[in-house]
Amino acid sequence: MRPQQGRLMVAAFDSALSYRKTPLTQLQLPAGEAMMQFQLCGLGAAQELALTLFQDLDSDGRMGANLVGLPTEPWGSSGSPGMFGPTWESGRVKLDGHLIVVRMSQ
Amino acid sequence: MNGRRHLLQAAASTLFAPALSAPALLLGRSAGARPADAADFAAAAAGQPLLTPLFGVDDHSGDRDGQARTLGRWPAQLRGRFYRNGPALLQRQGQRYHHWFDGDGMVQQFSIADGRVSHRGRLVRTSKLKAEREAGRFIFSSVGTELPDQPPATGPDSYNTANTNVIAHGGQLLALWEGGSAYAIDPLDLSTRGPVSWRADLAQMPFSAHPKVDAQGHLWNIGSSGRNLIVWHINPAGKLQSVQVTDSPFPGGMVHDLAITASHIVVPLPPLRLGFGEPTGGGPRRFPFVPGEPLRILVMHKDDISRQRIFELPAQLVFHVGNAFETAGGDIVLSYVGAPDASFMDQGAVALMAGRRFEHPPSKLFTAELSMATGRVRRSLLSGTGGPLEFPRMHPARIGLPARWLSLCGAWAHQAERPLEWFHGVQLIDTRSGRVLRYDYGAHAIAEEHIWIPKPRASTELDAWLLGTHFDARRQVTVLNLLDAAHIEDGPIAQAVLPYVMPLGFHGNFTAL
């Protein structure tokens, strides 16, 4: 993450149907250091999960985009989203007690 | 692991997640992709001195500073800096890009004064270069090479290579790519200042590599992103005058170059999509023509790009325009270099990187007469020398006006002796008669783009110098050449021989001092 800039916004989804529509839970954190670790509660009985994140650098509550909709704020996803953004399939991970590691875009 | 530990509970109730479905978050995933192998190129290049520049440079020892040995007579009136750009970092730790267009950009600066020529070359320190230097390997996919385990990219500038052109305008030196922002470079020491955002909401906006500057100093450029076509107007002071967005008539297509006239922007749209982000399975990305699609020539009014006309021609691959101008009757005459298929983009630029000879149908110079009244277009073959032509340039004060002459690189001889089909000479083509005047650097040479510099107090179009580089495989050096446009067939009137070889470049421009 870019340290101390804005907020980290996190949303968790538990199905393809709800993915990027209806989060199971979501979280806002003030941006801390380049590496942040946090616990996400309220996941109920979910067996698997896809997390979407973005760093709200200007704290306006939404992911920044330019005139033609290209992102201008860093984003991240659980799983292996590739360069251009996640799907439910590329973002889903098992909830098995291990840390979920998300790398934010540069 | 130096991060603080946060143990916070979910509290937010704002629904921000759908914002992540910003339109540009395309869906792309790769599996099992791998780049080409540097050892394969080294094996192909062994015993082929003409291929040396295609090794490129590395980012630890790649910078160059040198004094050139000058030959001939460098005119006292010629003072300034000639900048060039091109893909220079082509391989890393045994990885090698598949496609010539993939490499990281390196800006060359030839400083010319008092008959002396000094040279400086610097890789553009893009965020991509920094990230990959830290990683010790290529990590971002590029135009022609798909890599495994790609990190997330915020936008195009995450993988912007700034490798295609370099031009000074409005007090800034800009290193240009096709898909993202211009990178500002220090005009003297070539250090990288960073991506240029002309306005806060224009960060990460594609600003292409072939802006056209009119005689008054107004810069016009295009950009494309998915279905969006962007037209930029930067005023002579380097300030954003306007940015306009319209729907592309061929969404996702390659948009490389533009021409300007007094009132219009003219953009060739060949029937080829770049498919960036789509999985390739590890081989080079393929760039076939989309079947049934024409070559479109999109003409837009400068003041309102929604006022447009689209002309259709049988499919051709077009990278570069020569020029365009308006006739007294209000029609537009466009000159451009066209090839009958996409084989150079699809396979030629890959063969080049592999050190392999690849024959493809040659590109030739065409004119298209665009009738703004009827929407009809007439195409004529202006000139072909038998071999390929590329890198058209013209007198800088006549861009968008009726101009007679174009300079181009060409290949017309020596082909049996050479391990690659590439340019060995420079030529002038008379766009009125098709007459060709040319100079051959020889079988041992790779000729690069030559630009025009009007002589002081010049009156005619050919009262100009041509300035351009060639690689000399016998001496294994890069040479800067100055020719008199009116006597191109006599060859260089002055040369500056670098003490080393530079990677092959694409395009450049001159700044007079």
What does this protein look like?
The complex is a heterodimer of chains A (106) and B (513). The longest helix of chain A has 4 residues, at 88-91. Chain A is 4% helix and 26% strand. Chain A has one domain (7-94). The model of chain A has no long low-confidence stretch (mean pLDDT 95). Chain A has one helix spanning 88-91; strands spanning 7-13, 25-30, 48-56, 75-77, 92-94. With 106 residues, chain A is mostly beta strands. Chain A is built from one helix and five strands. Chain B is mostly beta strands and 513 residues long. Chain B has a single domain, classed as 7 Propeller (Methylamine Dehydrogenase, Chain H), CATH 2.130.10. In chain B, the strands form eight sheets. In chain B, strands 2-8-7-4-33 form a five-stranded antiparallel beta sheet, with no helix packed on it. A five-stranded antiparallel beta sheet of chain B has the order 3-32-31-30-29, with no helix packed on it. The radius of gyration of chain B is 22 Å and the shape is globular. Residues 1-34 of chain B have low confidence and may be disordered. Classes of the chains: A mainly beta (106), B mainly beta (513).
Q: In total, how many domains does the architecture of chain B comprise? A: 1
Largest contact between chains: A-B, 54 and 56 residues
**Rg over C-alpha atoms of chain A, rounded to the nearest angstrom:** 13 Å
Task: Sketch the topology of chain A as an H/E string, one letter per element.
Answer: EEEEHE
CATH architecture designation of chain B = 7 Propeller
Provide a count of the helices of chain B: 3
Mean pLDDT of chain B: 91
Spatial strand sequence of the major β-sheet of chain B: 2-8-7-4-33
> What's the overall geometry of chain B?
globular
Low-confidence stretches of chain B: 1-34
Helix content of chain B: under 10%
Query: What portion of the residues of chain A fall into strands of 2 or more residues?
Result: 25-35%
Q: What is the radius of gyration of chain B?
A: 22 Å
Annotation field: number of helices of chain A: 1
In total, the number of domains of chain A comes to 1
Query: How many extended strands of chain B?
Result: 33
CATH superfamily of chain B: YVTN repeat-like/Quinoprotein amine dehydrogenase
Percent range for β-strand residues of chain B: 35-45%
Separation, N- and C-terminal Cα atoms of chain A: 9 Å
CATH topology of chain B: Methylamine Dehydrogenase, Chain H
* Approximate helicity band of chain A: under 10%
